[in-house]
Amino acid sequence: MTQGPPFDATPLLRGWAVLRRARLRRLDPAATQQALLLGWLRRAADTAFGRQHGFASIRSVADYQARVPLRRYEEFWDGWWKPAFPLLRNVTWPGLVPYFALSSGTTSGNTKRIPVTRDAVMANRDAALDVLAHHLGQHPHARLFAGLSFMLGGSTALEEVAPGVREGDLSGIAAAEIPHWISGWGFPPPKLALISDWDRKLDALVEQVPAEAVRMLSGTPSWLLVLLHRLQAHRGGALPLPALELLVHGGVAWEPYRARFQPLLPPGCATREVYPASEGFIAIADRGNGEGMALVLDRGVFAEFVPLAELGTASPTRHWAATLETGIDYAVVVTSNAGLWSCVLGDTVRFVDRSPPRLLVTGRIAYDLSVFGEHLSGAEIDAALGRVLAATGSAPGEYCVGAAFEGSAGRHHWFVELDGRADPGGLSAGLDADLRQANADYAAHREAGQLLPPRLVALPLGTFEAWLRSQGKLGGQHKVPRVLADPRRFAELADWMQAHLRGRGE
Q1: What is the pLDDT of residue 406?
Q2: How many CA atoms lie within 13 A of 77 on its CB side?
Q3: Helices 487-503 and 463-470, interaxial angle, to 10°?
Q4: Which end of the chain has fewer CB atoms within 10 angstroms, the N or the C?
């Protein structure tokens, strides 16, 4: 069993981090992003995609945006990748694409295959190191590499789908490309990382992790909570990871989880948000919680930002580092060295600074609820539930909201994990009052009787974990959808929840 690293490599990391932060301070955001894009255009000029879009004659970001329209993943898959899959050679990126990351579609329920080139793997690895550079800038005495870095991801097993081409979880792709010498500072070892059964994997991790040696932990908050609770129980109620200095989290909003993590982390343990995606590493928190994440400028992503209100119009405005504005909800558009060209990612962000660009993730494009014309955004939904629960002193778990017709009117149904201290009827009334004040469309539909009062169903903590288990979607990148606007999918969830509660005698 791994007990600790071969030696404390933090001094080496600290020296590099000083140089890296100095370079980041010197970067001109617009010039850096344009140079990155133009370099990729030259490399991909002879691909099928590059020839069709005239890459060889593009000389500026404006040229590029005029030649290359926005596309969603489905358009890339159907028009460019699926016909050649699994052997994508010189299609949208030069050479053969060696990996495909299987990405779970939280809102659509469909699995995506995202091309991952070795250029993209190296860019993601470099961006991950930038996380440590930012952390050491704020915590210069940290000794992260005096211990182990524990990454909680999906199975690292990859399936070979053609000679030289494999697919699987992004963490498995990263593990396949990581230099062997780094493994002495990492956990879990390959034998544990390969386990595909999530419950069996968690049990093995809890049994074998040298808890006192772990200095850094990373993963999705929902699954990190499950791990830490199991580890705490295994340690007889003691702190799960007593030497932990840094928790790196991403994939879902942090605020709903913050209070639940507090008793599980040792004093002084820092938390740092990152914004990685299968399509590329987009942003890293370079300051404190809630102060935004710095756009990754010189790694594997050229980023564009389309005002959410213009997405889907004939000629949407396409902002980038040179033109972005603060305070506007943008849809994120990614061009990467994995062969994605102006691909609409699905997330929404809002910038809080321009130089350097610093953003907050505000939700998903599909993460809104307007079945009856109420136009509730994901940010409004999150904020309303957070405010109402805070007023009761109740700590939330996972939740999902959807809508159903009841005769000629409709109603929002909220399934919310609670710790048992809150009254569901009071919470329902509180949500209704909060949303009436926050959203004029919601208030108008309530006044007109087109929308009935919301109904909140309180669930025991761990219910959504059981639901994901029933769907075969435990661990890794699988997440609970905050909103299910598709009536069919929401009805399936509601039926399962009711059956589950009946089975518990509730």
Answers
A1: 84
A2: 11
A3: 120
A4: N
Nearest CA among 276, 293, 287, 271 for reference residue 360? 293
Report the pLDDT averaged over residues 319-337. 95
Average pLDDT over residues 471-497: 82
Where does the pLDDT of residue 108 fall: very low under 50, low under 70, confident under 90, or very high at 90 and above?
A: very low
CB 187 within 8 A of CB 2: yes
Reported as a pLDDT band with limits 50, 70 and 90, residue 478 is confident
The predicted pLDDT at position 19 comes to 97
Pick the closest to residue 36 from 318, 324, 353, 334 (CA basis): 334
Q: DSSP label at 182?
A: G
Spatial distance between the Cα atoms of 41 and 32, rounded to a whole number of angstroms: 14
Identify the bridge partners of residue 103 per DSSP, sorted by sequence position.
112
Q: Report residue 28 as tokens.
A: 């001109």
Inter-residue contact 193 to 155 (CB < 8 Å)? yes
Torsion sign across C-alpha atoms 247, 252, 258, 264: negative
**Cα-only R_g, the chain:** 23
Residue 457 in tokens: 């169903």
Q: What is the DSSP letter of 68?
A: S
Q: Which two tokens stand for residue 92?
A: 């949208």
271 - beta bridge partners?
A: 247
- Is the separation of the CB atoms in 402 and 483 below 8 Å? yes
Element (H, E) at 112: strand 111-116
User: Would you say the C-alpha torsion 39, 32, 305, 112 has a positive or negative sign?
Assistant: positive
The β-bridge relationship of strands 270-277 and 111-116 is: unpaired
User: Which of 205-214, 315-324, 378-387, 410-419 is predicted with the least confidence, judged by mean pLDDT?
Assistant: 378-387
In 3-state terms the chain splits into helix, strand, coil percentages (rounded to 5) of 40, 25, 35
Contacts of 159 (CB under 8 A, 6+ apart): 166, 167, 168
Distance CA 415, CA 490 (A): 11
Q: What is the pTM of this model?
A: 0.80
Please provide the size of the chain in residues.
506
The full DSSP string for 316-353 is: ---B-TTT--BT-EEEEEEEETTTEEEEEEEEEEEEEE
CA–CA separation, 327 and 51 (whole Å) = 38
CB atoms within 10 A of CB 24: 19
Average pLDDT over residues 442-456: 88
pLDDT at residue 318 tops 90: yes
Q: What pLDDT is recorded for position 410?
A: 85
Look up residue 143 and give its DSSP letter: -
Closest CA to 288 of 128, 127, 137, 125: 137
Angle (CA) 419 420 423, round 5°: 125
